[in-house]
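Worked Example 4.2. Read the sequence first, then its structure tokens.
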Amino acid sequence: MSTVYTRPLGRLVEQLQRLPGVGPKTAQRLALHILKRPESEVQALAQALIEAKQQVGLCSVCFHLSAEPICDICRAPNRDNSVICVVADSRDVIALEKTREYRGKYHVLGGLISPMDGVGPDQLHVQPLIKRVSQPQVTEVILAISPSVEGETTTLYVGQLLKPFTRVTRIAFGLPMGGDLEYADEVTLARALEGRRELE
């Protein structure tokens, strides 16, 4: 760490830089901002970080982030149990929920198949998905996975496994190849859900 920072400030900048999308300048700006805030605010931030890390786990049904054994979406009585939307991770659930268009349930795979990174189907929540989809009340699975090389591989693999049990569709994309669901605007995502088509 550069000598331009006193050691505690340097450590703070270093830790902030570990966050995704935070470069050296942003980390410095955040660190200096934190130092200017009242101690009570900084304590509240630190406490929120610790509590989130300690209390947030995965839903035992859909594997979305949850502070309870079963998440709010899975417990909601007004959600459609016949449709399951499969996504790569919780960021995608959050993005799709912001559209207010989808009223079914979710299943979070926990990543994408990527042999280059040593991630195979066994590292993902595929088997629990098959178990859920084999239930007679499930009439459709929507694959909402970003259109990257790994995303396409995962979509085709999961789709083939689920086809014997139910109708499998994939969302239409107004996204470029390699685009991420979480960065798409709500209108694009809503149209992608409406324009979904059968997986070939």
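Now turn to a second chain, presented in exactly the same format:
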Amino acid sequence: MTQKERFIAALERRPVKGHVPHFELVFYLTMESIGKVHPTHRHFYQWDQMSQREKELQRKDAAMTYIEIAEKYNHDAIFVHGFLPGADEMIRLLEAIRELSGDKYFLMMHGDPTFSIPSGNNMVEESVLFYEEPELMKKRAQKQVDDMLEYVEKIAKTGLLDGIAMCSDYCFNTNPFLRPSMFAEFVTPYLEKTIEAYRSMGLYTIKHTDGNIMPIIDQLVQCKPDALHSLDPQGGVDLAYVKKTYGDKVCLIGNVNCALLQNGTEEEMTADVLRSLRDGMAGGWGYIFSTSNCVYTGLDLSRYEKMHRLWREYGIYPEK
């Protein structure tokens, strides 16, 4: 199996031989790891002044950054962040990655139009609208879906893309931002429509949200994403319970505790990584190993590399 085939097998909850599939939603420590600035940390104030050759070199370098990280850490998929806005630029970046790596990796990009936790700048105003202007919010929700589907469809038609990472965060560590009854009104119908539309485009879907998803997990699974990420232990998500309860309906991704990865002792971190592998790999299918968030700026690279070594040693399905 290629990396892409292994990743798809996990998404489809089919058995995978050898190592459990592995990837990270985002790997920001590219400068420390391979000496290259992460594509989303690049700012091209003079892009319009560049020659076509200069632009091609920039795209190629961004593409190589993604590929080199995937190769170094045995990732089976790449979450592509367009470093310039617009569908046309995303297509060109995907083309550059495919040209350099062929069909080796599962390629995905962001595409979640559903309401997420509002920013601190407008949280009060947004919260009031859900109560005082519910029809307005539903119109906004549908407009967001329509605009996103138009954008993604243009890219999906190229055949360069395999899936969508739906990265609207719904939950704090304690509870979802919207209580379950409001989530059912303002998010679930639109999430379900979007996932169904992506499936009709031939795309897999990975629904990401941090925090305590347990009060709304039934609704998330009801929407039929191919996978749930990040199964946040800091939000009280028990991977063993979720695997037992929902593992026949959805692939599970993540659950390595980022707090322990960053601040735990070596013993605590090791135990948590091994726990995630044990609980996620139960049954021999339907799990993709990763952190419970991403490899974020400020994380000690050596801790992630220790996690990666543990995966190489212990993240292997037994021969049957």
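Notes for the reader: The mean pLDDT is 97. The chain has one domain: 3-27+75-86+102-314.
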